[in-house]
Every structure is written in C-alpha cells, then in structure tokens.
Amino acid sequence: MRDVSQKSGISDTLVEARGGLFRATLLFGSIAVALAMIVVPTADHQAKLVAAERVKTLDTVTTGSSVRSDKKHYVSRLSVLTDPDKGPCLLFPDGTQRGAC
Q: In degrees, to the nearest 5, what angle opens at C-alpha 64 toward C-alphas 80 and 90?
C-alpha cells in the first residue's frame, strides 16, 4: 500500500511543477509581448526622428535628360538648395554649360 501512495505523491508533485512552469511561461511571455508592443513603436519613432534630422543636410539634386525637337541632347540639373530665380543648369554633350551651373 505504501508504494501506491508514494507514486501518487510523486505524480502530484510533477503535476504541480508542470503547472508552475506553465504559469511562469505565460507570465514571462506576456511580459515580453507587452514590452515588444511598447518598445518597437518607440524605437521606430526615434528612428524616424533621426532620419528626418539627417534629411535636412541632404542636397537632393534632380537630374534629367531630354531631347529637344531639333535633336539637341542636353542634361538638366536642378538642386533644391539653389535660388529658385536662377533656374536649372544645362549641360550639353560638347561640354558647354548654360544656366545656373
């Protein structure tokens, strides 16, 4: 008879240990999910702020190439930092430049 009661005590202890382990897993898992829901958007926001600060120092130059009706090929460059009254810089295949270069 004693043998049966000892086995029952061991199995009860294992069941309790499994239950405790399951509860601990749920607890730490829910903490990890909660932190992820807070940390990830905050980090994303900070990354966007850093990127926005660096964009202010960039000079985005727009370069385009076009062919006029009289078959003259030229490249037009326009920077956002140049004065809008000056106009674009025109580069011709023969090396000549015209405009605000």
A: 80
Judge residue 82's burial from the number of C-beta atoms within 10 Å of its C-beta, 0-12 exposed, 13-18 middle, 19 or more buried: middle
Residues 6+ apart with CB under 8 A from 98: 89, 90, 92
| pTM reported for the whole predicted model | 0.38
Question: CA-to-CA distance for 14 and 60, rounded, in angstroms?
Answer: 67
pLDDT tens string 17-35: 888 899 999 999 999 999 9
Contacts of 75 (CB under 8 A, 6+ apart): 63, 64, 65, 90, 91
Where b means 16+ CB within 10 Å and e means fewer, 59-80 reads eeeeeeeeeeeeeeebeebbee
Radius of gyration, CA atoms only, the chain: 35
Tell me which H or E stretch contains 18: helix 2-55
Render pLDDT for 47-70 as a digit per residue (tens, 0 to 9). 888 877 776 666 666 666 555 666
